[in-house]
Amino acid sequence: MKIIFTTIVLLTLSFTSFAQYGSVGSVDARSMSLAKTYNATTSGIYAVGINPANMMFSPANHFEFSTVFPMPSLTMKAGDNFMSFEDFKYFFGGDNGNARILTPADKQRLSDLFSNGGRVFADVSINEFSAMYKAKPNIGAFAFSMADYFAVSFTVPKSLIELGLNGNQTNQVYSFNDAATKSWWLRMYSLSYARDLPEIDQKIFDQIAVGASIKMVNGFFYAGMDHMNTDLSTGSQNQIGGNADMVGYAAFSPSFGSVYGFDSSNTKSNMGFFPKPAGTGLGFDLGVAASMDKVWRFSLSITDIGSIKWDTYTAKYSATGNFSITDLTDKNQLDTIKNKMIGKGDYTNGFSTSLPTALRAGASYYLDHVVPGSMLLAFDYNQGFNDYPGNSVTPRFSVGAEWIPFGWINVRTGFSVGGLDGFGWAVGLGLETGLIEFNFATSDMNQVVMGNSAKMYTVAFGSRWKID
Predict the structure, then answer these.
(1) 3-class secondary structure per residue, the chain
(2) Which pTM does this prediction carry?
């Protein structure tokens, strides 16, 4: 078990990282409480990053903003998709202070845990400041937002676990192609505009709005694996041969004072609230939304169209060629595995990554006087076009409901399937004071009720000021 844990840590820390957006990424607490069923339910500053056209569904002459006071808008999520906290404690927490000796049944159970992938992740988003003003319909709505997104994700290959558990069994092939990592820290400055389209001659919708956002992106850190095609094969004499083919990229802000392992230079950290970017880019959001019969709203948008050019303090890690070892307990030979899989690094002129581009569509229906108070029902479809942090090429479907029984309290819930995390049950609460709105949420209430059997936890909270 020590060999497995050490190797996992070595692989993880080799791309040293800080701990989104996209089809599955972090959002505001209100949207989180609806299981990210946000496409046809957001308005005001919450429309930024989702569908800027939704800003036109705020009241006329309306101003709202969010800052760190009285409560910052913060979302945090961490966990994995294969092992509960109880499992982790059992396999890696020891046995009354001693190393745990695994039985054959234990080994099989640990191997089975990795059958659906070994992804570990942590995401944090912070909205430092957002503001929106909607003027008269013929003028439109304007918004500005500044937000930071931190994400770290890596996948432990199942073959690595099997090799550590069972040793170099004869005549076996172990593939590590499912190993992956992508992590970054981005700051996005968004400028958005939306307006109605009364010029369209039609009698179906009460209101049709379009919107667009332009985003200036500063990237302070990136570490990602471009591809991994590495395998091990065992022979009849307990020898192990292998082939390594891996390419990964990294970039750090010079303000961090970080030093790559292949560089012996001495640097000093010069961190502040505005570190020097390691990469910059531009992104765009485009959206359209419409209402019908004063109760229906339909929404369609494409967000985060664009890329980031990483061109400051960038490095490339690569590994190619064959290798051979005979004893996994031999530190020198174990280091050979690590070095071959991680590769050798050197400076590079730069590289590019895409933003987490996603297609979003949704519909909502407003019920008034049907239940005590009012209720909002919604359905969403979100489709990512790449696998960068905050995104998933696996479609995500969700439904959400918001009940306002008394006018000052909002009770919200929703269910989401697909994406990276599979099934999620969201729960949240909103409090209206007139001038300030407070929101609290988790998108994984199903994990909370599981206690130590949970695999991940999510929490989101935030506030916004509203002035009419």
Answers:
(1) CHHHHHHHHHHHHCCCCCCCCCCCCCCCHHHHHCCCCCCCCCCHHHHCCCCHHHHHHCCCCEEEEECCCCCCEEEEEEEECCCCHHHHHHHHCCECCECCCCCHHHHHHHHHHCCCCCEEEEEEEEEEEEEEEECCCCCCEEEEEEEEEEEEEEECCHHHHHHHHHCCCCCCEEECCCCEEEEEEEEEEEEEEEEECCCCCCCCCCEEEEEEEEEEEEEEEEEEEEEECCEEEECCCCCEEEEEEEEEEEEECHHHCCCCCCCCCCCCCCCCCCCCCCEEEEEEEEEEEEEECCCEEEEEEEEEEEEEEECCCEEEEEEEEEEEECCCCCHHHHHHHHHHHHCEEEECCCEEEECCCEEEEEEEEEEECCCCCEEEEEEEEEEECCCCCCCCCCCEEEEEEEEECCCCEEEEEEEEEECCCCCEEEEEEEEECCCEEEEEEECCHHHHCCHHHCCEEEEEEEEEEEEC
(2) 0.87
